[in-house]
Request: fold
Amino acid sequence: MIEKAEAIVLKTLNHGDTSKIITLYSKEVGRLKLIAKGVRSPKSKAAGLFQPTRHLQVIYYSKANSELQLFKSGELVNGFFGLEEDFDRLTLAQVIVELIDRSIEDKESHPLLFQLLADSLARLSTPDTSAAEVYWFFHLHLLRELGFRPHVGHCSVCNEPLSTGGSLGVTSSHLECVKCHQPRQDSIFVSQAVLSAIQSILSNSWDKVDKPELNARDRRSFWNFLWRFTFYHIEPTRRMRSLKVLQQLYS
Ligand SMILES: [Zn+2]
Reply:
């Protein structure tokens, strides 16, 4: 059967002498794996399509119960070429597609998540946006869509409001207040400013989020909190390759 999908390239793998296996995240069927035969030959019209982060419209032959479908043709919806001019933005875009790849279940359509992904890549490729804020918005809304919304309002032990900040507990999934938290070497403290930035990002659409005013220490703890929390809930993210580059940029 011939199918059509709108999808973003997550990763590619060379196969044989001239083919590629492409993993995409599609609006219609979630994760989609295609084999594109002959696309590495210089004569192929599809040669330039399959860079990770590219937004495509693809046509493919679908076989029921097969994990790998056969690519027929495709065209570019958005190349997000602005990313290529800025190393930080390109790195964040690579983290975004790898994070999606490691978080989503196979064959589960989630149009809202697809839109979040496409919108976030578009914002990142626009030079006048703040790259870290675009990224934080993407990451927090991804967690929310996957059912892992961080609760930043109250202490998970005594339920008092976290009015002076909070620390991640032993399990790294709940925040604890200063009185309840038993400090350890690897404790991560997040200030009230970071908690309210998280709250504001999670409760608003992109246009309505207030730009968080965070100092360097707060920004660092924001990054640390995000990843510690995500590693706990989505185990495969611990082995993300793009994280190493990200850590050099933001720690
Ligand atoms: Zn408490």
User: Anything to note?
Assistant: Residues 216-233 form the longest helix (18 residues). Residues 155, 157-158, 160, 176-177, 179-180 surround zinc ion (CB under 6 Å). The helical segments are 87-103, 111-124, 131-145, 192-203, 216-233, 243-250. The chain has a mean pLDDT of 93.
